[in-house]
Amino acid sequence: MTKSIMRGALIVLEGCDRSGKTTQSTKLVEALNKLNIPAKKISFPDRSTPIGSIINDYLSRKIELPDRSVHLLFSANRWELESEIRKQIEAGVTLIVDRYSYSGVVFTSAKQCIDFKWCCGPENGLPKPDLVMFLKLSSEEMAKRSGFGDERYENVEFQNKVDKNYDRFTNENFIQINAAQDISTLTNNLLNKVLTTIDFVKNKELDELVFN
């Protein structure tokens, strides 16, 4: 990394389905760009890639696949973009990521037929987020939101298992945010945390993700 260029931050939004991740990711990028801070959005799964197209067929119930294969496909989808993520960060671009490795681990392990630790393995070595903001939303609020139930994992019982699994990620970079706030208030709260993180990491190296 060229030391004369201050790197961007790797910011991840996590949460159960319909918690507002996509909306807030878009709004954060817009807000940062208005502040003349280079920022781009990435979403996982990235359904535009070869692997992503298979994932899309699976999520929309067009095909069936074994659970371990599905997990490895989701992880491989992140690895497809690994070099591009590093390139953008090192060029000074802040990336706002809608779902990342944490989603992969908690969704697969919520099926309760695959060990949590096994799910973590394929994620090790990916770029480590500088900040993960978990958008917390009750199952009652989740079920009220438009489109809930359209895809494979969108049922309240399963989402409750996913939510519980997220509790296993506790570190200084993983924080919980109340997602039931109105959209603009939530955006402002998230933006303040993002700006603080961008300033904090600008002269630091990008670490690698290691799940213990």
TrEMBL record:
Enzyme Commission number(s) of this protein: 2.7.4.9
GO molecular function, one term: ATP binding
Top-level EC class: transferase
GO biological process entries: dTDP biosynthetic process; dTTP biosynthetic process; dUDP biosynthetic process
Residue ranges of every copy of the Thymidylate kinase-like domain listed in the record: 13-186
Annotated protein name in UniProt: Thymidylate kinase
HAMAP family per the UniProt record, alphabetical: Thymidylate_kinase
Pfam families per the UniProt record, alphabetical: Thymidylate_kin
Organism in which the protein naturally occurs: Cinara cedri
Domain of life: Eukaryota
Presence of the UniProt keyword Transferase in the record: yes
This protein's UniProt keywords: ATP-binding, Hydrolase, Kinase, Nucleotide biosynthesis, Nucleotide-binding, Transferase
GO cellular component: cytosol; mitochondrion; nucleus
Record pathway: Pyrimidine metabolism; dTTP biosynthesis
Cited InterPro entries: P-loop_NTPase, Thymidylate_kin-like_dom, Thymidylate_kin_CS, Thymidylate_kinase
Family: Belongs to the thymidylate kinase family.
